[in-house]
Write a structure and sequence with these properties.
Blueprint (H helix, E strand, L loop, with lengths): L10 H13 L5 E7 L5 H14 L3 E6 L10 H7 L3 H4 L5 H10 L12 H15 L5 E6 L6 H12 L6 E8 L10 H4 L5 E5 L5 H12 L5 H11 L3 H14 L15 H10 L3 H12 L8
Parallel strand pairs: 1-4, 1-5, 2-3, 3-4
Helix pairs in contact: 1-2, 5-6, 6-7, 9-10, 9-11, 10-11, 11-12
Length: 294
């Protein structure tokens, strides 16, 4: 079963993704999946990756996180590291050296790697990888992309033309956050598509809750959950799980004891954790590099 078979109420969005992948062989292009937190961007992003792999495309992925934004070339390393042994023998000595140092495959003899040389090397790398199959560069939460990687990838995308290369990114629609690659500014409209993800419709929301939780909620409660969540799938599932956890059985017409925002729901969930678990989460949240904690 394809992952799209379990995605409820996003038929139009899935068709857009399929159309985008159909057009990759005609030349480089970009798809930006945009929406609020919890609306389902990452689910569709994963489906784009799965559909690309099913077509025999080569896929490079990274999931950016806010804590890694100040680090250098983190996302670029995620994207290229697994293919680096294949790439390096085909690069010129300066490009190979710059990429090895930037991706921590070699020590720097002097100052850090030159940004332009790393960018040119990365352009050579993606062109090389796209010679055997169409290539997808997939970035989740692009707003948290580290600055060095963003500059490199922007350089690369501005110089692609006929190559069968596509970039699929997700962007959280939040005031103050922006898409750091600037693809909408330098790609023509025929090669750039913005897919805005809106709330699920009521019927689709009911189908989602049934598929995840079974037929455990009466329709009036499902309707109330839909109204409170604003059609946000993550919010709706959190509300439903909170009701199930607390074994709430409201009488007809009785207001549901539902927090009015997602922050309230998360506070409730965190309150169920042990003191030790909360201490670990606090340590991870406070760390600039949580993956290094042991």
């Amino acid at each position: 079963m394809r992952s799209s078979d379990s995605i409820v109420g996003r038929e139009g969005e899935l068709a857009t993704i399929d159309g985008f992948l159909d057009d990759i062989t005609a030349g480089a292009r970009a798809l930006l999946i945009e929406g609020e937190a919890g609306i389902g961007k990452t689910t569709l992003w994963r489906e784009a990756i799965s559909a690309a792999a099913d077509r025999g495309f080569r896929v490079l992925t990274t999931r950016a996180v806010e804590s890694e934004t100040p680090l250098s070339f983190t996302a670029l390393s995620d994207l290229l590291d697994a293919s680096l042994d294949e790439i390096l023998p085909h690069l010129s000595d300066p490009q190979r050296r710059a990429l090895e140092v930037a991706l921590l495959r070699a020590d720097a003899d002097g100052p850090g790697p030159d940004q332009r040389t790393v960018s040119v090397a990365s352009l050579s790398a993606v062109r090389l990888l796209a010679t055997s199959a169409a290539l997808i560069i997939a970035i989740d939460d692009v707003q948290w992309l580290d600055h060095s990687s963003a500059r490199v990838l922007s350089f690369v995308m501005r110089r692609l033309e006929a190559e069968p290369i596509g970039i699929v990114t997700t962007l959280r629609a939040t005031p103050g956050l922006s898409e750091p690659l600037g693809v909408a500014e330098f790609l023509p409209e025929t090669r750039f598509e913005r897919l805005r993800i809106g709330p699920l419709k009521g019927g689709a929301m009911g189908g989602l809750l049934r598929s995840r939780l079974g037929d455990t909620l009466p329709r009036p409660i499902v309707r109330r959950i839909y109204e409170t969540s604003g059609g946000n799938p993550f919010f709706a599932l959190e509300i439903s799980r909170a009701l199930a956890r607390d074994r709430v059985q409201p009488r007809p017409g009785e207001l549901l004891p539902i927090p009015q925002d997602l922050e309230g729901l998360l506070r409730v969930r965190l309150a169920t954790l042990s003191d030790a678990a909360r201490e670990v989460l606090l340590l991870v949240a406070s760390s600039a590099a949580p993956l290094s904690i042991s």
